[in-house]
User: What shape does this take?
Amino acid sequence: MKAALLAIGRFKAGAERALFEQYNSRLRPPLALRELPEGVGSPGEIRAREGAAIAAALPDNALLVALDLGGPAPTSEALAALTARWEEAARPLVFVIGGAEGLDPAILARAAHRLSLGPLTWPHLLVRALLAEQLFRAQCIRANHPYHRAWRPG
Assistant: This one.
């Protein structure tokens, strides 16, 4: 599954970047990361500015998946099934992670799917690594690779 990740904010050297790169390098093919600058102003202005930057960076006909705390939080197996569906859509797949103020309502409305990594609030730079790991896990599940231990009790 060839996919891109649009993310507000820029990585600096550090553990978050290294963790993202570790899991992203395992993906076949890896996510194409494009970082967009953080907006300035009031929370509403920030969301609008960041939303405009995201919209401008989206490829035509993109299948947009918004990382959003209000979205469903599927199991790893369900995410594997979703990635298979998204891949079958034969559209450019783009994941988007907003900034500290969240995603602009226009971007959420444009999203084909919202995806939550659970009810906890995660630092935005760490979400990149969590997403890459879960996409790698989804690839492993789909390939029947033993990385995902479905037999383990919950």
Q: What stands out?
A: The mean pLDDT is 94.
